[in-house]
Amino acid sequence: MAVEDLSGFYDHYREALEGLIRAKAEGTKPEGAPAEPTAAPVVVDLMSALLESVESARQARVKTRSFCYWARTADAAPRVRRLTARGA
After folding, report:
1. H or E segment at 62?
2. What is the DSSP letter of 41?
3. 70 by DSSP, 3-state: which?
4. Residue 31: phi, psi to the nearest 5?
């Protein structure tokens, strides 16, 4: 499948590249150049975010454990009182 007549094709990439080279040589901005960013991007400190996440998970685990401890103690306390009352 060979194409004998290449007159129907046009190289848009080459034209854009030549325009870029010409603009750089003249010291101007090329057409369609992206605008300069106005504000600095927000940079997230991943290590501090990880440490905060771990600490909040630890705090949640401590609260759960203390709740379970007090729940078990509250359930066990009446049984202990009953046993001591019967034994006395």
Report:
1. helix 46-87
2. P
3. helix
4. -65, 140
